[in-house]
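Hi V.,

Quick status before I head out on leave. The structure for the redesign project is tokenized and pasted below; the design run finished overnight.
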């Protein structure tokens, strides 16, 4: 098989072709795709600004709880990275920057709220522990003061309310 490259003099190259159909002089050893040194992944393409606008418009309508979901955070951070790369290259758009800062403030606030809730959940006593404690108190009352008086006190406990609400 011959190389399929066109030449100025004879029309086509007469050298033997490699696997890709070209000889060593016409790109037969060239790497393709990700293996190529000039591979472009497209993450920082000129369309990054539009991508960020799409992500921001979608995220603008969702709740703070949904905003802190990992998928949404990753989408936002990817769009922000692309936009920052665009800004670095001189494409300044103050309206986008204002929207970015608002979304980031919401994200930070939602994250702080989520972390505060997690801390409070760690402080709470599990309901199973409370039930075990009440069972222990019931057994203790019945054993120490008798069944009739013990269950009378337990009935009073059942009527106890922490607040009026």
């Amino acid at each position: 098989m011959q190389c399929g490259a066109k030449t100025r003099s004879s029309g086509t190259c007469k050298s033997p072709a490699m696997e890709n159909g070209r000889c060593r002089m016409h790109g037969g050893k060239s790497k393709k795709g990700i293996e190529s040194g000039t591979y472009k992944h497209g993450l920082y393409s000129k369309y990054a600004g539009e991508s960020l606008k799409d992500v921001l418009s979608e995220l603008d309508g969702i709740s703070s709880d949904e905003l802190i979901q990992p998928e949404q955070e990753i989408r936002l951070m990817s769009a922000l990275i692309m936009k920052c790369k665009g800004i670095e290259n001189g494409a300044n758009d103050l309206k986008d920057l204002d929207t970015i800062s608002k979304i980031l403030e919401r994200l930070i606030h939602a994250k702080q709220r989520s972390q505060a809730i997690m801390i409070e959940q760690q402080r709470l006593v599990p309901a199973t522990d409370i039930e075990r404690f009440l069972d222990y108190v019931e057994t203790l009352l019945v054993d120490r003061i008798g069944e009739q008086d013990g269950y009378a006190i337990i009935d009073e406990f059942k009527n106890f309310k922490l607040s009026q609400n």
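Above is the designed sequence. The mean pLDDT is 75.

G. will cover questions while I'm gone.

Best,
W.
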